[in-house]
Amino acid sequence: MTYSGAVKVGGPADVHELPDLMISKVAVGPMNNNAYLLRCRATDEQLLIDAAADAATLLNLIGDDGIASVVTTHRHGDHWGALAEVVEATGARTYAGVHDAEGIPVATDVLVADGDTVTVGRVTLTARHLVGHTPGSIALIYDDPHGHAHVFTGDCLFPGGVGNTWGDPKAFEQLIDDVQHKIFEQLPDETWVYPGHGNDTTLGAERPHLAEWRERGW
Predict the structure, then answer these.
(1) What is the top-level taxon of the source organism (predicted)?
(2) What is the CATH number of the domain that holds 140?
(3) Which residue among 13, 50, 55, 215 has the highest number of C-beta atoms inside a 10 angstrom radius?
(4) What is the overall mean pLDDT for the chain?
(5) Would you say residue 35 lies in a domain?
(6) If you write DSSP's letter for every residue of the chain in order, what string do you get?
(7) Is residue 2 part of a domain?
(8) What integer pLDDT is reported at residue 133 of this predicted model?
(9) What confidence tens digit (pLDDT) does each residue in 112-157 have?
(10) Looking at the domain assignment, is residue 1 inside a domain?
(11) How far is it, in rounded angstroms, from Cα 60 to Cα 201?
């Protein structure tokens, strides 16, 4: 089956099979949060991005192999609602952005700053700090040596625009600047974008609209 990234709460995971990494996407909870399970093909080690809303669904996805780590993209409660239960069940090490960890009521084992790396087995992800949606949001970039890049953007980039900045012009300017300079200017059009809610997209699909987003202010 071809991966589309279109998932529904209560529905099955969609699996993106890459040469070195398997990415399983599920939607959970009343806010249609996306959670992503990454599995290194060489070692079978697993990492979860955003333990959102529904521990039972996430633990079923994780399976008997467990997870080594869980990364929380930002401090908003819909993205860590199942974190305590998942960590208790798996013993996973927790990661979060250095400026958002204080807003997450589960202890963060590893504080992540811009440019830091997070590993799952033999696969390396690079964190980018994106300011505006929250003070310490992080995106995770996997630069596939066999193909194009993949970026997990939390709530900082979606199909059709950047994340919510609640009408704050300064926060919007910070967010769109960071997304443009740290994501769009660093990665090619083929880069696959996995957002915190809803459908996936590519940087190529969104790039032509950057000026339009700036002009409208959201």
Answers:
(1) Bacteria
(2) 3.60.15.10
(3) 50
(4) 98
(5) yes
(6) --------TTS--EEEE-SSEEEEEEEETTTTEEEEEEEETTT--EEEE---S-HHHHHHHHGGG--SEEEE-SS-GGGTTTHHHHHHHH--EEEEETTTGGGSSS--SEEE-TT-EEEETTEEEEEEEE-SSSTTEEEEEEE-TTS-EEEEEETSEETTEE---TT-HHHHHHHHHHHIIIIITTS-TT-EEEESBS--EEHHHHGGGHHHHHHHT-
(7) no
(8) 98
(9) 999 999 999 999 999 999 999 999 999 999 999 999 999 999 999 9
(10) no
(11) 26
Structure tokens at 51: 């333990």
Name 162's bridge partners: 157
Domain assignment present for 5: no
Phi-psi region of 173 (alpha: psi -120 to 50; beta: other; left: phi over 0): alpha
CA dist., res. 160 & res. 47, Å (int):
28
Which positions ≥6 away from 186 have C-beta within 8 Å? none
The mean pLDDT of 107-115, rounded to a whole number, is 98
pLDDT in tens, 5-49: 999 999 999 999 999 999 999 999 999 999 999 999 999 999 999
Tokens of 26: 């599920």
Mean pLDDT, to the nearest integer, of 40-64? 98
Length of the chain, please? 218
Residue 1 has pLDDT above 80, yes or no: no
pTM: 0.98
User: Rounded CA gap, 93 and 111, in Å?
Assistant: 11
Please tell me the total count of domains within the chain.
1
